[in-house]
Amino acid sequence: xxxxxxxxxxxxxxxxxxxxxxxxxxxxxxxxxxxxxxxxxxxxxxxxxxxxxxxxxxxxxxxxxxxxxxxxxxxxxxxxxxxxxxxxxxxxxxxxxxxxxxxxxxxxxxxxxxxxxxxxxxxxxxxxxxxxxxxxxxxxxxxxxxxxxxxxxxxxxxxxxxxxxxxxxxxxxxxxxxxxxxxxxxxxxxxxxxxxxxxxxxxxxxxxxxxxxxxxxxxxxxxxxxxxxxxxxxxxxxxxxxxxxxxxxxxxxxxxxxxxxxxxxxxxxxxxxxxxxxxxxxxxxxxxxxxxxxxxxxxxxxxxxxxxxxxxxxxxxxxxxxxxxxxxxxxxxxxxxxxxxxxxxxxxxxxxxxxxxxxxxxxxxxxxxxxxx
Length: 373
Hints:
Layout: H1 5-15, H2 26-32, E1 60-61, H3 75-83, E2 103-104, H4 111-131, H5 137-170, H6 178-213, H7 221-234, H8 242-266, H9 273-301, H10 308-372
Antiparallel strand pairs: 1-2
């Protein structure tokens, strides 16, 4: 009835007569020295015997305290708790409130705590990124000063857009008239586009400077190409329409940031340069987006918004109209002078005729007097 290895070996030791040991081969020796397997039925798959068993060593009993439950019992505290009367709170009882797992892997933190820890870690990363503690002070101050023109032009564009929309809604602008706001906007936008072309060219030239200095080794055309691509993309934008120019410069700034980040990983730039470029590119990109949004709002409110090309065309047309008006006024003045001269000439001829008539009449009277005498 007891089918175990120990019982079978014990029974065989009493019933079996001692016999001489037969010779064995290498195969039988390996078989005899093999580790004994668990006695399983032939119908069961033998692979189950080799499956790893779960490790239940660190499993702890359910407890509200951190660490093992085998603490020293405080009898005084137990007596105080025993003297208190239990209070019933049926509103807090549910089908799951009394169900406590028998086994658990120690006290676990709630999900809210884990989520807040992740948020705090993200906030810490953002603070470390924007603090730029490793950037040299000179580069940090000059870079921050370089962002000021972008921020000023974008904020001016947004305000002028609001002022133009306010004028269309209320009849008058808050600070400027619609015509003045349009003129200021036509001055500010080319300044922003031209400044962006200069900065993009400067970012490409940094690669040339570090190549000349041999920082990170000499990379030849792999580094020189960035100094060629940057101005080749930047300067044609000053001839594009405003929206296309701003979008092209936005893409150029982002392309150069990714190129500089890869170069930093390769050791072509200092370790702090990629973070420094990320922060500056973030503010420049936000300024460009603000300018595009502001101009988009103006286009929806005022369909007469003109580009710099249209403004120059209208200025040229106005100059031609002024020239034509001056020519007409000059011709009319000449005609008036001619008419006045003709009128004076006619009056002079009439006066001369009168004088001649008077002279002839006087001569005839003298002749008649002479004849009478």
